Amino acid sequence: MNGLFNDITAAILVGGKSRRMGQDKAFLMIEGLPVIERIIQILQGCFRQLLLVGDRPERFTQYHLPVVPDSYPGSSLGGLYTGLQHAETDRIFVTSCDIPFPNPDLIQRVCADTETYDAVIPATQGGLEPLFALYHKSCLPAMQAALEAGNFRITALLQQLQIKTIAPEQLGQIDATGRSLLNINTPDEYAACKELKP
């Protein structure tokens, strides 16, 4: 790591309903800690400014971080828009609250580009990972237009943005375990995640 990013805000999306999981994903226990706490600890080692995006801020009072209500509840794009809107910096690094193994070296790589792209997004063999990525406030007009039109899919929005991707082979060099972009949506995925070796 090369120290803390001063000019990028980390935004954690905590507004999901966790319907498939059946319980709040942010508080699933992984290796002795709630997922949200694992994420916060990693991000506090990378960024000076953190905020949480979602409703019911009383769930997160113990972390002493600002919680901003989602401007468009119920969608990841709405959470991303809200995080960008409320950040005091021009760029945010965003992650969802169901990624239990965020890799500091990958975060550093995503945020390292000084060129002005609308977004910097890792790409796996399965496609782009837009919820572990860097976004610039230049995205806000396109995001707002999409949301107001009822288009809540991030993938559709990305076609309108100037994006830099981090290729799968680069990801493999940074994260040999391959678990840094793993997310948990179902009880089966949670069970499998608990069996993974560091």
Q: Topology of this protein?
A:
Blueprint: E1 5-13, E2 29-30, E3 33-34, H1 35-44, E4 47-53, E5 67-68, H2 76-86, E6 91-96, H3 104-111, E7 119-124, E8 127-128, E9 132-136, H4 140-148, H5 154-158, E10 163-166, H6 168-174, H7 187-195
Parallel strand pairs: 1-4, 1-6, 4-5, 7-10
Antiparallel strand pairs: 2-3, 6-9, 7-8, 7-9
Helix pairs in contact: 2-4
Please, could you describe this protein's structure?
By secondary structure, this protein is of the alpha/beta class. It has helices spanning 35-44, 76-86, 104-111, 140-148, 154-158, 168-174, 187-195, and strands at residues 5-13, 29-30, 33-34, 47-53, 67-68, 91-96, 119-124, 127-128, 132-136, 163-166. Strands 1, 4, 5, 6, 7, 8, 9 and 10 form an 8-stranded mixed β-sheet that branches. β7 (119-124) and β8 (127-128) form a beta hairpin. The mean pLDDT is 89.
Kindly list the characteristics that best describe this protein.
198 residues, alpha/beta, two-stranded antiparallel sheet, 7 helices, 10 strands, globular
Structural class: alpha/beta
SSE order in H/E notation?
A: EEEHEEHEHEEEHHEHH
- Tell me the number of strands: 10
| Shape by Cα distribution | globular
Give a quick account of the main beta sheet: strands, pairing sense, barrel closure. Answer: 8 strands, mixed
Mean pLDDT, all residues? 89
Helix percent band: 25-40%
The amount of beta strand, in percent, is 15-25%
- Summed up, the helix count is 7
The low-pLDDT segments are none
End-to-end CA span: 19 Å
Query: Radius of gyration in whole Å, from Cα?
Result: 16 Å
